[in-house]
Amino acid sequence: MENNFFYLGEDLGMGANKLYGSSGGLQFLSQVAINGSQHLNGVLGLRQLLRPMEIKTQHGSFYTGEGAHDYGRPVENLDFDRLTGSPEMMALFYGSITRYQQQHGAITQPIVMMGGLPLQMMSGDTAKEYANQVRARFKGIHHWLADEKAERIQIAEVKLIPQPVAALFDYVLDDKGKFIPEHAGLLKQEVGILSVGFNTLELLVVRDRAPVERFTAGQTVGVRRLLELVNDQNMYSLGELDSSLRAGRLDITNALPVWAREVNGEIEKRWGMAFKRFARVIIVGGGALLLSDHLTRQFNGKAVLPDNPVLSIARGLYKLLLMKR
Question: Given this model, what pLDDT does residue 62 score?
């Protein structure tokens, strides 16, 4: 928080919104529901649950975070337009910022934010348009109500990079944005980065600090695909299943091997046996925890999982800000 700015890494994830700042990190589940304002209070014989955080904006009232889908009409728009600042995305962002401040203290300085976006959003003909939309939506002064309490932040600057790039810098930089001597040499070599998120599987190869485009791809076979295999009769929202998965209540015994083969198949399509020439394969994202055994075997000892693969991208974004300040 030098130079009177608060530096914030923001991983705009479909499964969870991840933040990382000087006080540490936070993940806030990307569940959002439109508030119908129909509540049951104190029903005899039933356990009373704590309601999810309610966020009110100019676009309406939303329940956000874990359990939101139990209290309103679920909103599960998983296309990339959601990340450009749709009403439900902003409600989730405000919910996560509120929770971060509750845990780590109020953010009073203007924020310099480094945001991570999926590879598909930052490549191709629409990349510039997507980036401009995200910057325009997030930069500026924001007001909202969180559980009826007025909140305000100012985002002074928004920088954007592909999410997997941040995972690489999380590995080579320390918590002060300085290069880790035993890891920094990877930037001069060929390194594979594999991000298994909620919505997408992203593959990126960097050689001497430049991407190798023929090895770079993104496919929508992330954790949501595992949940779709379990939810073959469409009885639950993806958010409900995600909560059950995180709580260890979801039986994925039969679905996990099927999903693992699909993920492995997509990796082989893009990388084939070329991974043998990579110095390391850095694996991040919530799906990395589920597939750690499968991927470790597939990459024959080259795989590296950070100490916290879920927060790795957000933490890498924060470290990059420290390096560049």
Answer: 92
**Residue with tokens 């500026």, as numbered in its chain:** 140
Residues 305-317 have a mean pLDDT of 94
Task: Pull the structure tokens for residue 209.
Answer: 């600090």
Q: Which residues of 257-276 are buried (b: 16+ CB within 10 A; e: fewer)?
A: eebbebbeebbeebbeeebe
- Look-up of token digits 């920094």: 184
| Opening angle at CA 18, ends 310 and 302, nearest 5 | 25
Do 198 and 30 contact (CB within 8 A), yes or no?
yes
Per the structure, the count of domains in the chain is: 1
Please, which pLDDT band fits residue 119 given cuts at 50, 70 and 90? confident
Which has the closest alpha carbon to 308: 6, 16, 7?
A: 16
**Which helix or strand (DSSP H or E) is residue 162 part of?**
strand 149-162
Phi, psi torsion values for 100, nearest 5 degrees:
-60, -45
Element (H, E) at 60: strand 60-64
At residue 87's C-alpha, the angle toward residues 24 and 5, to 5°, is 35
3-state secondary structure of 228: helix
Domain with 206, as residue range(s), is 2-324
Rounded CA-CA distance 172/164 in Å is 13
2's CB contacts (< 8 A; 6+ apart) are 325
The CATH number of residue 183's host domain is: 3.30.420.40
Beta-bridged to residue 142, according to DSSP, are 153
CB of 260 closer than 8 Å to CB of 246 = no
Please name which of 207, 119, 113, 209 lies closest in space to residue 163, comparing C-alpha atoms: 119
